[in-house]
User: What shape does this take?
Amino acid sequence: MNFLEERILRDGVVKDGDVLRVDSFLNHQMDVALLDELGAYFYERFKEKGITKVLTVEASGIAIACATARVFGVPAVFAKKSKTLNVDGDVYVAEVESFTHKCKNTVIVCKQYLERGDRVLIVDDFLANGCALRGLISIVQCAGAEVSGIGIAIEKGFQMGGRTIRALGYDVCSAAIVEEMSEGGIVFRTE
Ligand code: 5GP
Assistant: This one.
């Protein structure tokens, strides 16, 4: 069992609606040493990919993106949730449906922070149905940049996102893949 799986077993809380709460170390209070371990984990996996930017979506991906970007020595960029639907032409835009809040968000990235030729590592805290990833992938494509890898802290393997995104050919690395979860316990995928 790796460092993240051990921590999920110790401090993760399974909620109704297929939601895993990790507020005590990842999503609200943050264990910065654990974030650094995650950054190092993604670096080991993607260090040969010539990564030039780390991209995530606000809010819960930002800390992971910062820890990861520091190891790669590249900038971290986060897609911002935009309240206005009429965004101007200087931004890339995507629609992202929130798994936890059950609403749609427009997210934007300023064109100056993502450019043709960038080799982008997308990171996020969770992968559930893959909506957040699909939005980020479309932003990278609009910029003419390349998705060189995807690093996820916790993938819920019983939801369809991981399968769908891998089937599209993307290189997805999840530090922990939850195969089953209930109040009785959490089972991880062993590969
Ligand atoms: P997806 O877009 O893949 O359906 O969901 C991913 C996004 O929803 C992540 O950015 C994450 O913030 C949120 N999310 C999905 N499942 C969970 C979960 O079980 N627990 C928490 N805390 N967030 C989740």
